[in-house]
Amino acid sequence: MMFSRRIPLHRLLSRCAVMDSKVLREAAEIAQLYRDQCRFPALCRADVGPVITSRYGGQYCNVYTEWTQRDLERNENVKFCRQYIVFHDDKSVVYSGPSGNCTEIKGELLSVDSPSGDMKAVLRESTIKGEDKQFLEIWHKNRKLKCLNLTTLSKHGKVYEDDQFGCMVWSHSETHLLYVAEKKRPKTESYFQGPETGLLADEEETIKTDKKEETVLGQQFEYYEDWGEALVNKSSPVLCVLDIEGSNITVLEGIPANISPGQAFWAPNDTGLVFVGWWHEPFRLGLKYCANRRSSLFYVDLASGKCEQLSSNSSAVCSPRLSPDLCRIVYMECGVFGPHQQCNRLCMYDWYTKQTSVVVDVVQRAREDGFTGIYSSMLSPRCWSADSQRVLMSCAQRCRKDLLVVDTSTGEVTSLTSQSEEGSWNLLNIHRDLMVVSCSSPNCPPDLRVGFLPEKGSESKMSWVTLEETQPQADISWQTLNFSPPPEEDNSQYPGLDFNAILLKPKEMTAGSKLPLIVMPHGGPHSVLVSEWFLSTAVLCKMGFSVLLVNYRGSLGFGQDNILSLPGNIGTQDVKDVQLAVDSVLKQGDFDKQKIAVVGGSHGGFLACHLIGQYPEFYKACVARNPVTNLASMIGSTDIPDWCMVEAGYEYNTDIHLEPAILEQMLNKSPIKHVSKVKTPVLLMLGEDDKRVPSKQGIEYYRALKALQVPVRLLWYPGNNHSLSKVDAESDGFMNTALWIIQHLSL
Ligand SMILES: CC(=O)N[C@@H](C)C(=O)N[C@@H](C)C(=O)O
């Protein structure tokens, strides 16, 4: 007999039904769910056009939006635009609606309307006879006024289209266009395979004279440093100005040779250019996710060619934004080296008095009103109120992204959204006090809204008009949980810090059933998971999993002390915080303690590997994407060696000499140190082109697990970098994660 006689069969079956949670297991059904959820697009840009007054005195403007969406069939992220018309009076939206349907955008790398809205500039990439070419187009009314083949003109290398350096900006006069491109490199040939080979002496002479200036010999294999992860082949940016009338491109001179310029714009009256300059001597380090690179604000005068430094010599700056009255520039500033992302200072430079002031300083601990400091990595393209008095930004405040208004004369910070029930808010743009924002939460994909910035003092009266509704996912519930470490886990240097986590659960739970739990600590480690829409967590939750997103101490959004508490303590403080969050959640009683998995990427992968090493019986499945597994071996190969030093508890200098004791400490803080205790089956996902956490980190761990005969599988994604975000890699990664967890949690 198969079943014990003491429990009747019908009772046993019904008990199994009660104990078993319902998790979707069929690959085809999971893929269908993923496909369905992929249909929610994300907003990536919004522009507000000039205000037009109609014949009848009504005012309206056009809101242009760009969205991205995964197209699984075409295996690409598609970008499309949609426009809306917004009728308004001085302070409220009267009527709004879409004007037309969505249009897919192909080949556009950058585009920008002129300030008056009369013209548009587009940087387009097109493949002609198998070769990639870049074109700069100027559009006016219903026609393309100009099209310059930048590749053939060969004044510079490829134009930068990234967030770090890239920009395309009209002059105030609308006669010139400014952008950033790679510096032109000399044409080079081998000493042996040039056109001279096999020619008669006099023919050779002719060719040599013709080509003397253009071609250098023996430099084909020259190494050009780049700016690391996601900025490969970006080495020496130059500022370029197109004179639209004359179709003439000038590559600006006068910028110090040890500085790489980017994020540029026109100074008041078009007298020159303001830009962020990053020091690149003695060598370049990775910039992505690293706001702590020495940089300053500069001004280059177009008439004299003189370059002036406008901000501190020993800080890191980003996102300079000129006020509408063209008098002041706000920008964010933080320390050099140290944690890769920190609490920012909001600074302001007065163009006429040349005075700099700190509008909002670094916040060490949350203030009484709850403000925890500024953590935005980038300000929106426009961020000033119409009267040039207030600055707006979206910013993590603990695990929620709020819209904050900063009064530049008093430094007072007010939240426009802290009273709302919803999740997180993103400021896309603001023009003449009309804000374009997007709101989402773990159970609600992003929507699109507009609203006028209320008068100072009336911020609580903020009202929004939705331009694009979304579809809330009623089957997902979520909550925020706060944790205070017990005394023995308090940080003696930074005592009394707390942290939090976001818990997602399927709303419909069968009575008495226990949920499987997936624990997800974020990467960085100085980053934060806010209460916004994530495709993967939503799908996992819809499948029947509960998901715990942990913002351990060291995360952004909780004050600078919280960030500073982690370097030197990685592998212990962060690991214990995650485990504390998991243990606390398990006390709720809704979860099956035998069905817990851990998933993480990068530093989140570091934590996943640590957790399975330090709590060997606890986690039944582990998925690690590009994990840091050994800091001592990573330091020589990553684009951010400073990260390895700082997180291991040391100061970084570019001329640092590694001592055995430093390497020992790095090893001791690494997951590889605990690998011999691992029992949990591990799925590794590695990007072949990862410059941040090179794939050898994962391979080192893979070999160790293989030798220990711990079940391990490695997925290798060619053409992918640290983010593993190409559509096929991301979707394959999701499916394999889900199936690995289902298999090893015996669901
Ligand atoms: C600064 C940085 O990139 N650190 C990595 C080790 C990391 O964890 N990256 C995070 C931001 C990621 O999620 O990729």
Provide tags for this entry.
single chain; 747 residues; alpha+beta; Neuraminidase; Rossmann fold; 6-stranded antiparallel β-sheet; 13 helices; 17% helix; binds ligand LAAZK34X; omega peptidase activity; hydrolase
Note down, in words, how this protein is organized.
Its main location: cytoplasm. Its EC number is 3.4.19.1. It comes from Sinocyclocheilus rhinocerous. InterPro entries: 6-blade_b-propeller_TolB-like, AARE_N, AB_hydrolase_fold, Pept_S9_AS, Peptidase_S9_cat. The structure is a single chain. With 747 residues, this protein is α+β, with helices and mostly antiparallel strands. Among the domains are: 128-185 and 226-379, 6 Propeller (Neuraminidase), CATH 2.120.10; 476-630 and 670-745, Rossmann fold, CATH 3.40.50.1820. It is built from 13 helices and 39 strands. The two termini are 25 Å apart. The structure holds ligand LAAZK34X.
Can you summarize the main beta sheet?
A: 8 strands, mixed
CATH architecture tag of the domain at 476-630 and 670-745: 3-Layer(aba) Sandwich
Distance between the termini: 25 Å
Q: What is bound: which ligands?
A: ligand LAAZK34X
pLDDT averaged residue by residue? 94
As residue ranges, the low-confidence spans are 1-18, 197-211
Give the name of the CATH superfamily of the domain at 476-630 and 670-745.
Alpha/Beta hydrolase fold, catalytic domain
Write down the overall geometry.
globular
- Radius of gyration (Å): 28 Å
Care to count the β-strands? 39
Order of strands, main sheet, comes to 32-33-35-34-36-37-38-39
> Helical residue percent?
10-25%
Tally of alpha and pi helices: 13
CATH topology name of the domain at 476-630 and 670-745, in short, is Rossmann fold
The percentage of residues in β strands lies in 25-35%
Subcellular location: Cytoplasm
InterPro entries: 6-blade_b-propeller_TolB-like, AARE_N, AB_hydrolase_fold, Pept_S9_AS, Peptidase_S9_cat
Subunit structure: Homotetramer.
Domain Peptidase S9 prolyl oligopeptidase catalytic: 537-745
